[in-house]
From TrEMBL:
The lineage of its organism: Bacteria, Pseudomonadati, Pseudomonadota, Gammaproteobacteria, Oceanospirillales. One of its GO terms (cellular component) is plasma membrane. GO terms for molecular function: amino acid transmembrane transporter activity. Keywords: Cell membrane, Membrane, Transmembrane, Transmembrane helix. It is found in: Cell membrane. The keyword Hydrolase does not apply. This is LysE family translocator. It is a multi-pass membrane protein. Pfam families: LysE (PF01810). One of its GO terms (biological process) is cysteine export across plasma membrane. It comes from Vreelandella salicampi. The keyword Magnesium does not apply. The chain crosses the membrane at residues 6-24, 45-67, 109-136, 142-171, 183-200.
Length: 201
Protein backbone atom coordinates (compact mmCIF):
# COMPACT_ATOMS: atom_id res chain seq x y z
CA UNK A 1 0.00 0.00 0.00
CA UNK A 2 1.28 3.44 -0.90
CA UNK A 3 2.21 5.58 2.08
CA UNK A 4 -0.43 8.11 1.07
CA UNK A 5 -3.13 5.53 1.87
CA UNK A 6 -2.02 5.11 5.48
CA UNK A 7 -4.85 7.58 6.16
CA UNK A 8 -7.41 4.83 5.44
CA UNK A 9 -7.14 3.74 9.08
CA UNK A 10 -8.12 7.17 10.46
CA UNK A 11 -10.71 7.50 7.68
CA UNK A 12 -12.31 4.22 8.80
CA UNK A 13 -12.43 5.41 12.40
CA UNK A 14 -14.00 8.67 11.26
CA UNK A 15 -16.70 6.88 9.28
CA UNK A 16 -17.40 4.51 12.15
CA UNK A 17 -17.81 7.41 14.57
CA UNK A 18 -20.21 9.13 12.19
CA UNK A 19 -22.30 6.11 11.19
CA UNK A 20 -22.50 4.24 14.49
CA UNK A 21 -23.85 7.27 16.34
CA UNK A 22 -27.51 8.38 16.21
CA UNK A 23 -28.59 10.55 13.32
CA UNK A 24 -31.49 10.89 10.88
CA UNK A 25 -30.49 7.88 8.77
CA UNK A 26 -29.88 5.56 11.69
CA UNK A 27 -33.06 6.50 13.50
CA UNK A 28 -35.10 5.93 10.36
CA UNK A 29 -33.36 2.60 9.78
CA UNK A 30 -34.22 1.54 13.33
CA UNK A 31 -37.87 2.49 12.86
CA UNK A 32 -38.00 0.74 9.49
CA UNK A 33 -36.32 -2.38 10.83
CA UNK A 34 -38.84 -2.59 13.65
CA UNK A 35 -41.90 -1.93 11.49
CA UNK A 36 -40.97 -3.81 8.31
CA UNK A 37 -38.16 -6.19 9.27
CA UNK A 38 -34.50 -6.25 8.28
CA UNK A 39 -34.97 -7.74 4.81
CA UNK A 40 -37.56 -5.19 3.68
CA UNK A 41 -35.33 -2.40 5.04
CA UNK A 42 -32.38 -3.43 2.84
CA UNK A 43 -33.35 -1.12 -0.09
CA UNK A 44 -33.45 1.77 2.40
CA UNK A 45 -30.04 0.75 3.75
CA UNK A 46 -28.43 0.41 0.32
CA UNK A 47 -30.05 3.67 -0.75
CA UNK A 48 -28.28 5.49 2.07
CA UNK A 49 -24.93 3.98 1.10
CA UNK A 50 -25.47 4.61 -2.62
CA UNK A 51 -26.70 8.15 -2.08
CA UNK A 52 -23.75 8.99 0.16
CA UNK A 53 -21.35 7.51 -2.40
CA UNK A 54 -22.73 9.80 -5.11
CA UNK A 55 -22.82 12.80 -2.78
CA UNK A 56 -19.29 12.31 -1.44
CA UNK A 57 -17.92 11.72 -4.94
CA UNK A 58 -19.62 14.91 -6.06
CA UNK A 59 -18.07 16.81 -3.18
CA UNK A 60 -14.65 15.45 -4.14
CA UNK A 61 -15.17 16.67 -7.70
CA UNK A 62 -15.96 20.20 -6.59
CA UNK A 63 -19.62 20.19 -5.58
CA UNK A 64 -18.68 21.40 -2.10
CA UNK A 65 -17.19 24.56 -3.61
CA UNK A 66 -20.75 25.73 -4.24
CA UNK A 67 -21.17 26.21 -0.48
CA UNK A 68 -18.13 28.47 -0.42
CA UNK A 69 -19.30 30.53 -3.38
CA UNK A 70 -22.96 30.65 -2.38
CA UNK A 71 -23.37 30.56 1.44
CA UNK A 72 -27.13 30.99 1.07
CA UNK A 73 -27.25 27.62 -0.69
CA UNK A 74 -26.13 25.87 2.48
CA UNK A 75 -28.81 27.61 4.54
CA UNK A 76 -31.46 26.76 1.96
CA UNK A 77 -30.37 23.13 2.04
CA UNK A 78 -30.67 23.09 5.81
CA UNK A 79 -34.24 24.36 5.71
CA UNK A 80 -35.31 22.03 2.90
CA UNK A 81 -33.64 19.06 4.57
CA UNK A 82 -35.20 19.93 7.91
CA UNK A 83 -38.67 20.25 6.38
CA UNK A 84 -38.39 16.88 4.67
CA UNK A 85 -37.02 15.29 7.82
CA UNK A 86 -40.01 16.58 9.79
CA UNK A 87 -42.29 15.05 7.17
CA UNK A 88 -40.55 11.68 7.53
CA UNK A 89 -40.67 11.99 11.33
CA UNK A 90 -44.43 12.56 11.14
CA UNK A 91 -44.85 9.46 8.97
CA UNK A 92 -42.89 7.41 11.48
CA UNK A 93 -44.79 8.79 14.48
CA UNK A 94 -48.21 8.18 12.94
CA UNK A 95 -47.46 4.72 11.53
CA UNK A 96 -50.04 2.21 12.76
CA UNK A 97 -49.12 -1.11 14.37
CA UNK A 98 -48.13 -3.79 11.83
CA UNK A 99 -51.37 -5.73 12.17
CA UNK A 100 -53.37 -2.58 11.33
CA UNK A 101 -51.10 -1.40 8.54
CA UNK A 102 -52.28 -1.13 4.96
CA UNK A 103 -49.22 -2.35 3.06
CA UNK A 104 -50.48 -0.63 -0.06
CA UNK A 105 -49.87 2.77 1.54
CA UNK A 106 -47.31 1.99 4.28
CA UNK A 107 -44.02 0.87 2.88
CA UNK A 108 -40.35 1.30 3.80
CA UNK A 109 -38.33 3.85 1.87
CA UNK A 110 -37.18 2.67 -1.53
CA UNK A 111 -33.55 2.70 -2.69
CA UNK A 112 -33.98 5.93 -4.63
CA UNK A 113 -36.00 7.69 -1.93
CA UNK A 114 -33.24 6.97 0.58
CA UNK A 115 -30.50 7.88 -1.91
CA UNK A 116 -32.07 11.22 -2.84
CA UNK A 117 -32.64 12.07 0.82
CA UNK A 118 -28.86 12.19 1.31
CA UNK A 119 -28.67 15.26 -0.92
CA UNK A 120 -31.11 17.01 1.44
CA UNK A 121 -29.47 15.61 4.57
CA UNK A 122 -27.14 18.23 6.07
CA UNK A 123 -25.35 15.61 8.16
CA UNK A 124 -24.43 13.73 4.99
CA UNK A 125 -23.01 16.94 3.49
CA UNK A 126 -20.96 17.58 6.63
CA UNK A 127 -19.67 14.01 6.57
CA UNK A 128 -18.71 14.28 2.92
CA UNK A 129 -17.01 17.64 3.23
CA UNK A 130 -14.99 16.51 6.27
CA UNK A 131 -14.09 13.18 4.66
CA UNK A 132 -12.78 14.77 1.48
CA UNK A 133 -11.03 17.67 3.21
CA UNK A 134 -9.38 15.47 5.81
CA UNK A 135 -8.53 12.22 4.05
CA UNK A 136 -8.29 12.66 0.26
CA UNK A 137 -4.65 12.08 -0.81
CA UNK A 138 -3.05 15.05 -2.52
CA UNK A 139 -0.85 12.94 -4.81
CA UNK A 140 -1.94 10.79 -7.71
CA UNK A 141 -5.00 10.81 -9.94
CA UNK A 142 -7.67 12.94 -8.27
CA UNK A 143 -10.62 11.04 -9.75
CA UNK A 144 -9.23 7.63 -8.83
CA UNK A 145 -8.26 8.78 -5.34
CA UNK A 146 -11.75 10.18 -4.78
CA UNK A 147 -13.50 7.01 -5.94
CA UNK A 148 -11.22 4.79 -3.85
CA UNK A 149 -11.66 6.89 -0.72
CA UNK A 150 -15.43 7.26 -1.08
CA UNK A 151 -15.86 3.58 -1.92
CA UNK A 152 -13.81 2.57 1.10
CA UNK A 153 -15.79 4.96 3.32
CA UNK A 154 -19.10 3.44 2.25
CA UNK A 155 -17.80 -0.10 2.77
CA UNK A 156 -17.11 0.93 6.36
CA UNK A 157 -20.49 2.66 6.68
CA UNK A 158 -22.56 -0.26 5.37
CA UNK A 159 -22.20 -2.68 8.34
CA UNK A 160 -22.39 0.21 10.80
CA UNK A 161 -25.74 1.37 9.42
CA UNK A 162 -26.92 -2.23 9.07
CA UNK A 163 -26.55 -2.64 12.83
CA UNK A 164 -29.25 -0.01 13.34
CA UNK A 165 -31.65 -1.77 10.99
CA UNK A 166 -30.92 -5.09 12.73
CA UNK A 167 -31.40 -3.44 16.11
CA UNK A 168 -34.79 -2.19 14.99
CA UNK A 169 -35.72 -5.64 13.71
CA UNK A 170 -34.94 -7.16 17.12
CA UNK A 171 -37.04 -4.49 18.83
CA UNK A 172 -39.91 -5.22 16.46
CA UNK A 173 -39.89 -8.87 17.51
CA UNK A 174 -40.18 -7.89 21.16
CA UNK A 175 -43.14 -5.50 20.86
CA UNK A 176 -46.38 -7.37 21.46
CA UNK A 177 -49.24 -4.88 21.79
CA UNK A 178 -50.70 -2.15 19.58
CA UNK A 179 -50.24 0.34 22.39
CA UNK A 180 -46.53 -0.48 22.65
CA UNK A 181 -46.18 -0.13 18.87
CA UNK A 182 -47.75 3.32 18.93
CA UNK A 183 -45.47 4.41 21.76
CA UNK A 184 -42.43 3.10 19.91
CA UNK A 185 -43.35 4.83 16.66
CA UNK A 186 -44.12 8.12 18.40
CA UNK A 187 -40.78 7.93 20.24
CA UNK A 188 -38.84 7.21 17.04
CA UNK A 189 -40.69 9.98 15.23
CA UNK A 190 -39.89 12.43 18.01
CA UNK A 191 -36.21 11.45 18.02
CA UNK A 192 -36.05 11.86 14.25
CA UNK A 193 -37.69 15.28 14.51
CA UNK A 194 -35.19 16.23 17.23
CA UNK A 195 -32.43 15.89 14.63
CA UNK A 196 -33.77 19.10 13.09
CA UNK A 197 -32.60 21.00 16.15
CA UNK A 198 -29.06 19.71 15.59
CA UNK A 199 -29.24 20.63 11.91
CA UNK A 200 -30.45 24.19 12.47
CA UNK A 201 -28.41 24.89 15.62
Amino acid sequence: MSSQWVILGPAALYMMSMTLTPGPNNLMLTASGANFGFRRTLPHLFGIVGGCFLLFAGVAMGLGVLFEQYPSLQQTLRWLGSAYLLYLAWKIATAPPPDLRDDATRRPLTFWQAALFQFANPKAWVMGLALIAGFLPANGDAWLNALLLVGFAELVALPCCALWAAFGSVIGQKIRTDRAWRRFNVTMGALTAACVWMILA
